[in-house]
Amino acid sequence: MTFGFETLAIHAGQEPDERTGAVIPPIFQTSTFAQDAVGSPRLGYEYSRSANPTRDSLQECLAALEGGSRGLTFASGLAAEDTLIRTVCRPGDHVVIPDDAYGGTYRLFAKVAQVWGVSWTAAKLSDVEAVRAAVTPETKMIWVETPTNPLLGIADIAALAGVARDAGALLVVDNTFASPYLQQPLALGADVVVHSTTKYVGGHSDVVGGALVVNDSDLASRLTFHQNAMGAINGPFDAWLTLRGLKTLAVRMERHCDNAERIAEFLVGHPKVTQVLYPGLPNHPGHEVAVKQMRRFGGMISFRLGDTDRAIAVCNNTKLFTLAESLGGIESLIEHPGQMTHASVAGSALEVPGDLVRLSVGIETADDLLADLDQALRG
Ligand code: P1T
After folding, report:
1. Where does the chain cross the membrane (predicted)?
2. pTM metric for this prediction
3. Whose CA is nearest to atom 18 of ligand 1?
4. 210 within ligand 1 shell (Cβ under 6 A)
């Protein structure tokens, strides 16, 4: 029997506990597991870095939701990324990265991986030929974010999968902004899906985590080896919180999208706003590709005000939108990428405009969010 997304989100990897009947998977808050004899761990569990039942439930659920055969979860999105890079790349290898991406992802390539001999080229992901031109014989991965953080650019996953295949490289898609409810990169030809589960997957701004999902069994076993060998795992309680959040992903995403569509429309009509970046808008350059590969357009909106001081003032003026980094929680957040989440890309090819404001639109009453933005833009 095949199940729908909402059913999988609630049940995949989560049978009632065999011993007690507990409907919700217990938090196996243990570092180690008793063994019946030397070399005979019960159900294969021996030590929680290698495997833990609560983490297994989350990993299975995420794999099911992304249509993958194996999910692996980590202490943070960046820990997942680091494990992937060090599993796939060796000194002398090359990676194509986005010219617009989360600042911490850029920093990981530019300040960490590069020191270990992994070079990179930043390319405009919405331009398939520019990505192809950035590939070298040493390219091992083409790294994609779509929608991008913070400019909401859209990359054609299926087209880039073709470029990666021709190059003999892996196509990696950071699916954090869309979540598996809105977009499923593996079905479009990607080899690896990356998540900061801190965001929509967890959904409640109460836990930091990351994930990788793959279909290829050889890559899955190499990543599983590195997950244990490098040890950047998430703890049982963090896995449990993330799993609890995941159950409501579908209904949360629908409301995030409803609210974001209304706010994008409001911003488009606002005289002080010079540009609205939201892939759901028909004049967004990636709109057609987004329609093809996304169910809806998500809860992230960026907009420009033509002036850095004005952008900072709006961020400081909101009352319901909380001024904070991160995204994807049920509460609305506002931030200034240039001085907050993307300060680490200043002076690089990924530098973001100073007049940019980023919204993570939550699931509060839409009229209240509109009223708050209205007063902040007036102030
Ligand atoms: O914060 P962490 O869980 O390590 O995830 C890193 C990460 C990876 N990919 C994307 C697309 C992200 O947005 C992030 C984290 N982003 C923020 C904290 C932010 O406010 O943009």
Report:
1. none
2. 0.98
3. 326
4. yes
Task: Locate the ligand 1 atom nearest the alpha carbon of residue 342 and give its number.
Answer: 21
Asked if 299 contacts 287 with a C-beta cutoff of 8 angstroms, the reply is no
User: Cα separations (Å) of 99 from 80, 145, 199, 210, 235?
Assistant: 21, 10, 22, 22, 33
What does the pLDDT look like over 153-208, one tens digit per residue?
A: 999 999 999 999 999 999 999 999 999 999 999 999 999 999 999 999 999 999 99
Q: 318 to each of 19, 87, 102, 178, 322, how far by Cα in Å? A: 50, 43, 24, 25, 7
| Angle between helix 77-88 and 217-230 (nearest 10) | 120
Give the residue, by CA position, lying nearest to ligand 1 atom 16: 326
DSSP 3-state of 266: helix
Q: Please give the Cα distance from 161 to 184 (Å, whole number).
A: 13
User: Is 105's C-beta closer than 6 angstroms to any atom of ligand 1?
Assistant: yes
Residue from 149, 335, 339, 356 to probe ligand 1 pocket by mutation (most atoms less than 8 Å from CB): 149
CB 10 within 8 A of CB 247: yes
Domains of the chain (ranges plus CATH)? 5-247 (3.40.640.10), 251-378 (3.90.1150.10)
Determine the Cα–Cα distance for residues 133 and 155; give it in Å rounded to an integer: 16
